[in-house]
Amino acid sequence: MPILPVRDESGAQTKIMVHMPGRNVYAKIWEVKIGRISLYLLDTDVDENQEQDKFITSQLYGGDLEFRFKQEMILGIGGIRALHAMNIHPDIYHCNEGHAAFIGLERLRILRTKRNLKFKEALEIIRASTLFTTHTPVPAGHDKFEEDLMRMYMAHYPERLKISWEEMMQLGMLNPGEKFSMSYLAANVSQEVNGVSELHGDVSQDMFKDLWKGYFAEENHVGFVTNGVHYQTWTAKEWKLLYEKTFGKEFLNYLSNKEHWKKIHDVDDKDIWTIRQKQRGKLVSYVKDKVRQSWIRRYEDPKNIVDILENIDENVLTIGFARRFATYKRGDLLLRNLDRLSRILNNKEMPVQILFAGKAHPNDKAGQQLIQRIIEISKRHAFLGKIIFIEDYDIRLAKKLVQGVDIWLNTPTRPQEASGTSGMKAVMNGALHFSVLDGWWVEGYRENAGWALPAEKVYENQEFQNELDTQTIYHMLENEIVPLFYKRDKDGIPHDWIRFIKNSIGDIAPEFTTKRMIDDYKDRFYNKLYERSMMIKENDYAAAIKIAEWKQNISKVWHNLEIVSAKFPDYEKKPMNLKESFTGEIEIDLKQLNPEDVGVEVVITNVSTDGSSHIYEKYPAKMLSVENKIAKFAIEGAPQKPGFYNYAIRIFAKNDLLPYNHDSGFVMWA
């Protein structure tokens, strides 16, 4: 794809500027056309920049935290300035990962500069049009910076925002003195937040729960949209032709329509097996060329080259494991019992080969050592041509792998895989997925359409759990997967294996297309944000001004609120019978608050086996009367299950203009 400079009216390449300590840093804007979509890139390799700053955009990973901070200033602040320089003014902003969170501060600066709005008013406006997507549950993926580093690079920013330094820092901190979290900043300047799978949404609710004190994790508004993959990019030509022939001409316009994909069951098994054989053959041929080139380049033992090339076989069950090598992904899980693994791979009647590929983060020494161990094992006599690590992992190699392997293996430590997409790509190409029930596979797994390790951990000790998972994988390979692949009819066709492929394509593939993902974002977030942001903008931001004023007024008097009395049965000591109703009353001295500003509810909880409390039911209270600022509330409820319950009364500030009750930030428990 051509990369072209973005030019201004005079024909010069458009640049933006971001102020850094003692100098200005400039970035050129480039445009890449991807179909109908424009991708804009920022490039600091500019003559006006100091030598050190020319390298800010030189690599995705690498460098120290200061280097990372400069990158995120260019991405966030520079990104917004680039849009303005090109006269692009979106209605909705989607902040992918906390790395781009400075878009919120820059948009606030622009709004404060152009309009006579208070900071809290501007914040309501920015939040109403912003979605923040978090992509990882791993702490290392959430950047945090020391306050001294923030001061070095952004000491001038509070003045531009017309707020104090402390106010700006609060946007990225829970408590004074902590590191500044880019993910907290992103959440605080966004109305909506989501994870990238259903399980990751739950994990993210817990991760960000402290931002909304007084509420349980499962109550906050963090949602999810499970990732999807681009069909046209990742699907092999042979599969595309088969799908379009079988599913009909309208298929490409309705990629997430399950009714189209179900027609895969009408395809002759021989046709599917022919494609699978052809794709595996292409992959093996490509791998042989890559191995030959890399071994010659490294002056490896010529005898081993011959043995490897002879052992790699296009007719053998091929397992693929390719991804970023981080320890939590457990890329060495299969290598824990080499004798047993050798028996599986070198079975003369039912041989298996494993292809590894991927890279580790430049600063992840453990990940690099993991790759080194795989390479070392692959050179042992028992594994020559049976375990292959393919170097120089890139998109071309990734395509070959997802299109050619028979099984895509994924073994993360649950629940640290936010989503994962490589397995989705493999499914579209008739490969079968074998994974821990983590990330997208929690939603994707179907019986007789792939394989899964159990969802729940048996051992708290991770080393014990690793050993159990290893033994489970070996057992499933030996007793289920490998025999199924080699069970053939007289024509050499594995009908039972192909039944799994058809189930996988028909039931799983349509759920994980980019089309479905974009539809989910539109339905769950974009439409909601657009409607609310339009409402906020009406009458010169009247709603934003009203919300900010209300929050300010509540903050001054909320602490004066007083519970006069509360009368409820004690169900901690006496079990509640099935369908037994309860009633309770609570009286509150509102002081300076208005009755419509206060909400009351009973929160009933039960305790999970792990000792954590979760909400069983919530019952809203009805205001009966208000006399002399004393408000009387009544609550009635009837839990659906008998038992012992814990309950508490929650009093919260409410306003119909808020997107969520917990958005007010004012809560009292009784």
Enumerate the strands of the largest sheet in spatial order, edge to edge or round the barrel: 13-12-11-14-15-16
- Please give the number of β-strands: 24
Main sheet properties: 6 strands, parallel
Using only CA atoms, what is the Rg? 29 Å
Low-confidence parts: none
Helix content: 25-40%
- End-to-end Cα distance: 62 Å
Count of alpha and pi helical runs: 21
Structural class: alpha/beta
Task: Give the overall shape.
Answer: globular
Average pLDDT, all residues: 92
Which structural traits does this protein have?
single chain; 670 residues; alpha/beta; 20% strand
Description:
The protein is of the alpha/beta class and 670 residues long. 39% of the residues lie in helices and 20% in strands. The protein is built from 21 helices and 24 strands. The strands form 6 sheets. A 6-stranded parallel β-sheet has the order 13-12-11-14-15-16, with helices on both faces. Strands 1, 2, 3 and 4 form a 4-stranded antiparallel β-sheet that branches. A 4-stranded parallel β-sheet has the order 5-6-9-10. A hairpin with a 2-residue loop joins strand 3 and strand 4 (37-43). The protein is globular, with a radius of gyration of 29 Å. The termini are far apart. The mean pLDDT is 92.
Short description:
The chain has 670 residues and is an alpha/beta fold. It has a 6-stranded parallel sheet, with helices on both faces. Strands 1, 2, 3 and 4 form a 4-stranded antiparallel sheet that branches. A 4-stranded parallel sheet has the order 5-6-9-10. Helix 16 crosses helix 17.
Write the layout of secondary structure elements.
Elements lengths: L2 E3 L9 E6 L2 E12 L2 E7 L21 H21 L7 E4 L5 H13 L4 H9 L2 E4 L10 E2 L1 H8 L2 H5 L3 H6 L9 E2 H7 L3 E4 L2 H10 L15 E2 L6 H4 L2 H11 L10 H4 L7 H29 L4 H10 L5 E6 L15 H8 L6 E6 L7 H14 L8 E4 L4 H10 L2 E4 L11 H7 L3 E5 L4 H4 L6 E3 L8 H25 L8 H13 L6 H44 L4 E6 L14 E8 L8 E10 L5 E8 L1 E6 L2 E8 L8 E8 L13 E3 L1
Parallel strand pairs: 5-6, 6-9, 9-10, 11-12, 11-14, 12-13, 14-15, 15-16
Antiparallel strand pairs: 1-3, 2-3, 3-4, 7-8, 17-18, 18-22, 19-20, 19-23, 21-22, 23-24
Helix pairs in contact: 1-2, 2-3, 3-21, 12-13, 12-16, 16-17
